[in-house]
Amino acid sequence: MGRKAYWIIIGLFIFLFSFGCLIAPAYASGLRVTFVIGQPTYWVNDQAFSMDAVPFLSSGRSFVPLRYLAYALNVAPQNISWDGATGTVTLKTTIEDSAYFEIRLGVHNKYLSVIKRVQSGEAQVVTSVTFPMDVAPLLIEGRVYLPARYVAEALGYKVSWEEEGQKVIITASQDITLGETNKSQLLTSYTGTQAIKKSYLWNYHGAQYQWQIIVPASLREYNQNLEKILEEWNTLGSYERATLLDSLPSSTKEFLLSVLQAPAGDFRPWVKEHMNYTYTNNLALELHRQAAKEGYNRFYEAEFILSFVQSLPYIYTPLPRLPATTILEGGDCKSKSILLASFLKALGYQVALLEFPPEEFGNNIGHEAVGIAFDTRELPARESLFYFEYQGQRYYYTETTTPGWGLGEMPRLLQNKVAVVYPLE
Fold this sequence. Notes:
- By secondary structure, the protein is of the alpha+beta class.
- It is built from 11 helices and 22 strands.
- It folds into 2 domains: 7-198, Copper amine oxidase-like, N-terminal domain (Copper Amine Oxidase, Chain A, domain 1); 218-423, Roll (C8orf32 fold).
- It has a 6-stranded mixed sheet with strand order 1-11-10-9-8-7, with helices on both faces. Strands 4-3-2-15-14 form a 5-stranded antiparallel sheet, covered by helices on one side. Strands 20-21-19-18-22 form a 5-stranded antiparallel sheet.
- The longest helix is centred in the C-terminal third of the chain and has 20 residues, at 274-293.
- The radius of gyration is 24 Å and the shape is globular.
- The two termini are 40 Å apart.
- The model is unreliable at 14-28 and 174-193 (pLDDT under 50).
C-alpha cells in the first residue's frame, strides 16, 4: 500500500435552530463595543474609531459594516479577505497555538459557516458549523453589511439593541471551549436532539481517508417526512392531496410537485432539494479542500469524490433517497448518483444524470449513473473513457454503485445500452 493520509473532519452541521457560542472571546469580560445607527464612529469601551461606512436600519433590522465589526472584535486586517468572484468574506482568528477559526459568509446568502481547524501530526481535525440567518448580508458601495449578532455570537459575544439612541451593543460573554462535554451540549441545544455521527473509511490512489460526519437529527426527520409523503401519495384522494399541499412550506411543496411532475428516471429534483443541497454543499467544500491539498486537478478531484460515494453501502430502495439519508444509510444506484451529482454541482461541475430505462435490461429496475463534462485538457491519458453526448457536450460515465470503478470506466453490460441524459443546470 502507498502513503497513508488521515483526514478527520468532526462535525459538519446544518442547524435549523439558533446559534450559540462556538469560540471563546479574545477580550476580557469587560469588553463593550457600540455601533450607532447613522454614525461613522464605533466605540470599543471608551475609545472611538472612525469608519468610512455607517450602520443603518432596514426592515426593522440593524446592519453594521462587517469589516469594522471584525476590527472591533479583534480580527486583524490581514485576516479579513474578500473573494469577489464568489462574493464571499472570510474572517480568520487564532485562538490556540495549534488551532485557528474561520468565519465564512456570502453576500445575498443566508448561511454562515464557522470552522475550527486543528493540525495534530498527520491528522487534521475540522469542526464546521453552518447555520441559517434570517437575512442575507448586503454589498453596498464595496462594503459588506449584516446584523452584528451573527458574527459576534459566533465569536462568543452577546449582542443587544438599545432603542434609545439606536445603539447596537456587543459585550463579552462567558468563555466556552469545545471539549467533549460541551460539544455534546452544543449538539443537543442546536438540534433539539442528539445529532447522528458516522465514520467513513475509504481508499483512493493508495491513500486511506477517514471522515467523521455529523448529520443533525432534524435533517434526517425532515427527509423521512418527505419520503413518507411520496410513498403514500398514490393512496391519497384528490381532496387529501390538495389539503396536504396547502399545509406544506413553499420549498417543500415545490420539491414535492417537481418530483411528481418529472418523468420516470429523472431524479434532478432530488439533487436540488434545498435543505439537502445546502448540507451537501458544505460537505463538498471540505472534499474540495482535501482534493486541493493532494494536488488533484478537476478530473481527479471528481474521481476522489466518487470514491467516497462508492464506499457507502449499496442498499436497494424502491424510491430514491435524499442525499443526507444516503450519507447516513447508504443507497442504490439512483440514490448514490443523486448524492454524487449534488456534490459535484455544488463545486461547479457540469453534471448530468444518466438513466438506463428498465426496457434496456428487460426488467423493472433499470440503472442510474452520473455523467460529468470536462475540458479535453483535463482528461487523463487512459485507454478509453466512455461518455454520452448530449447537445454537443460529452458527459463521461461515472459508476457510483461499488468501489473500484474509475471515472470514465463503464461496466461491459452497459456499453451497448441507450441512456437518457438529464443535464443539471
